[in-house]
Amino acid sequence: DTEVTQTPKHLVMGMTNKKSLKCEQHMGHRAMYWYKQKAKKPPELMFVYSYEKLSINESVPSRFSPECPNSSLLNLHLHALQPEDSALYLCASSQEGKDSYEQYFGPGTRLTVT
Amino acid sequence: DQQVKQNSPSLSVQEGRISILNCDYTNSMFDYFLWYKKYPAEGPTFLISISSIKDKNEDGRFTVFLNKSAKHLSLHIVPSQPGDSAVYFCAATILTGGGNKLTFGTGTQLKVEL
């Protein structure tokens, strides 16, 4: 099973709203990632968690706040977003410490900020 | 600074023929490379990867070739099938542990025609 699930599939929020994106995997992977993808652009890394600790933050604005409650779950809390934050948000996971470095992606959450 | 480049935004191939997708990189520190396929409204799907210590890796219809001196990799799909029509991204990473940042190319839209 190489499935990563993400909820919700679509989200529309105003600039004053607070919302959260959720990601779950049951592959026993110990690294989890958030990427952002704008239309006709490649995915860009936002955050990496390794063994439930934040290991990489790609200078993401503080209006995006990641959280890793346990080894299977990854959240992205959103607050006071701007219209330019509208994008596809992708979650991914990968093994750690083994000779396998592929990242497996979820279907994404399509976010629209109005 | 685009460290991973896919100079062909689109490619059209007849069913049954070979598809060759190309990717160039500039960062000589990259030591692991991956190819992903992406359909609209879905997350990227992992296809095949290669370590910098190899020059070829094969998996079924998919073969990846790496030329380190030229900083170039290519994905060969033989034979091409209509279901292969998608956007293909190459990605590169520096293996450090603690999760690995993937740097993606800009993508190539492959269309396999009947």
Query: Secondary-structure element order of chain A, as H and E?
Result: EEEEEEEEEEE
Helix content of chain A: under 10%
Find the structural class of chain A using helix and strand composition: mainly beta
Give the overall pLDDT of chain A as a whole number. Answer: 93
pLDDT average of chain B, as an integer?
A: 95
What is the terminal-to-terminal distance of chain A? Answer: 36 Å
Radius of gyration of chain A, taken over Cα atoms and rounded to an integer in Å = 13 Å
Binned, the helix content of chain B reads under 10%
- The percentage of residues in β strands of chain B lies in over 45%
Low-confidence stretches of chain B: none
The oligomerization state is heterodimer
Q: Biggest β-sheet of chain A: count, sense, barrel?
A: 7 strands, mixed
Sheet of most strands of chain B? 6 strands, mixed
Shape of chain A: globular
Task: Identify the biggest protein-protein contact and residues per side.
Answer: A-B, 31 and 24 residues
Order of helices and strands of chain B: EEEEEEEEEEE
Distance from first to last alpha carbon of chain B? 38 Å
Number of helices of chain A: 0
Structure description:
The complex is a heterodimer of chains A (114) and B (114). Chain A is mainly β. Chain A is built from no helices and 11 strands. In chain A, the strands form 2 sheets. In chain A, strands 2, 4, 5, 6, 9, 10 and 11 form a 7-stranded mixed beta sheet that branches. In chain A, strands 1-3-8-7 form a 4-stranded antiparallel beta sheet, with no helix packed on it. The mean pLDDT of chain A is 93. In chain B, strands 2, 4, 5, 9, 10 and 11 form a 6-stranded mixed beta sheet that branches. Chain B has a 5-stranded antiparallel beta sheet with strand order 1-3-8-7-6, with no helix packed on it. Chain B starts with a strand and ends with a strand. Chain B contains no helices and 11 strands. Chain B is mainly β and 114 residues long. The interface between A and B is medium-sized, with 31 and 24 residues.
